[in-house]
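Try this one yourself first.
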């Protein structure tokens, strides 16, 4: 069943970074721009994680066969370190503790890099894992054994592949591949996995469809083609590419799906409302219907600290208009009314990540371009500005 997306009312209130900004939690904060570095081209593999275990988050990013991590020291000081070379990917890569030693490793495409525990002084150890070159890599527990597995999506081959890999006790051995279904250019990242039907196991969203984990162990899958917005999707030269985030948007205790249209010059942001155990879905538009932006990023987080999830995205390489980054504020707390805030303009955005980088209690953003080399950090000033106002 193909569902049609109804356009909800949304309020356009542009909030330029650097202008007057609210100092109270519950109103959209200002974001302060900081340059991280200029290096690389055609980059993906992005993560915000604590590589060196010093209590703050570092920026991981890589080209198709080379990966770096940028050590956070202060908003204006990031130290670049070589992470590894040799493993091949398209855009896909994600950082998590693969070998269980307490240090964050990096999985990307055909292999992984092991953090030796001395990330500031030596490159990671490289291993081939027998996995596919892909657009999306996501870490999640698919078979319910309490350990993270790896999910990958690619359009390469006759029909492409969406697969998951169980990681052996010795992850230096070949990882075990399990087929979920066909693939598209991109469609399971950055967070396209969750228990949609409330049966206790992890299902997988691939942009235009979702796969039900039928046996709860990831060996049997049922495809549901329920996720199509009004007028259909908007694939361009690379085929269908959608950024996906599974989360409860309307505070009704089931998981919904937020999506951003990528690799298209006029993308949209929308969410699919789960109307009960994933039996039916209702689609709601978050952004304008026409944006002239290629939304090749998606982050869903509480940027204004008011207790509900907001949505971030920004203009990627195919954008027709000046590149812009936005946060859509969840204005009623139930994803029924949205306020659009322009966060930064004139900077290219691709595969952005959002998390509390500096540990001050609000959500920051790191991103970079696809065509270009400028990495930058958008520091959320909510907590600092609130403290200044309180002192005044």
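Now uncover the answer:
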């Amino acid at each position: 069943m193909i569902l049609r997306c109804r356009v909800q009312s949304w309020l356009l209130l542009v909030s330029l970074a650097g202008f007057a900004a609210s100092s109270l939690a519950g109103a959209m904060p200002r974001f302060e721009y900081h340059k991280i570095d200029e290096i690389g081209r055609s980059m993906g593999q992005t993560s915000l994680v604590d590589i060196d275990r010093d209590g703050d988050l570092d920026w991981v990013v890589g080209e198709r066969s080379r990966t770096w991590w940028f050590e956070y020291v202060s908003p204006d000081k990031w130290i670049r370190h070589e992470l590894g070379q040799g493993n091949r990917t398209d855009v896909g890569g994600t950082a998590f503790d693969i070998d269980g030693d307490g240090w964050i490793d990096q999985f990307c495409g055909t292999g992984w890099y092991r953090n030796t525990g001395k990330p500031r002084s030596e490159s990671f150890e490289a291993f081939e894992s027998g996995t596919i070159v892909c657009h999306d890599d996501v870490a999640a527990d698919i078979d319910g054994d309490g350990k993270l597995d790896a999910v990958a999506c690619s359009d390469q081959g006759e029909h492409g592949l969406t697969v998951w890999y169980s990681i052996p006790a010795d992850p230096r051995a070949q990882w075990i591949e399990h087929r979920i279904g066909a693939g598209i250019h991109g469609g399971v990242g950055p967070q396209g996995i969750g228990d949609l039907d409330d049966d206790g196991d992890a299902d997988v969203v691939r942009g235009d469809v979702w796969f039900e984990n039928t046996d709860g162990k990831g060996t049997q899958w049922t495809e549901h083609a329920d996720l199509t917005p009004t007028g259909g999707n908007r694939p361009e030269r690379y085929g269908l590419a959608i950024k996906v985030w599974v989360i409860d948007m309307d505070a009704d205790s089931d998981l919904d799906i937020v999506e951003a249209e990528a690799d298209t010059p006029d993308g949209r942001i929308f969410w699919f409302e789960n109307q009960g155990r994933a039996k039916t879905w209702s689609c709601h538009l978050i952004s304008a219907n026409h944006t002239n932006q290629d939304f090749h990023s998606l982050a869903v987080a509480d940027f204004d600290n008011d207790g509900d999830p907001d949505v971030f995205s920004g203009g990627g390489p195919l954008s027709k208009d000046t590149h812009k980054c936005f946060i859509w504020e969840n204005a009623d707390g139930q994803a029924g009314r949205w306020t659009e805030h322009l966060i930064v303009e004139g900077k290219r955005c691709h595969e952005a990540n959002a998390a509390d980088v500096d540990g001050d209690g609000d959500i920051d953003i790191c991103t970079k371009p696809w065509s270009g080399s400028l990495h930058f950090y958008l520091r959320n000033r909510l907590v600092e500005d609130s403290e200044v106002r309180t002192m005044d």
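Discussion: Residues 1-24 have pLDDT under 50 and may be disordered. Residues 382-391 form the longest helix (10 residues).
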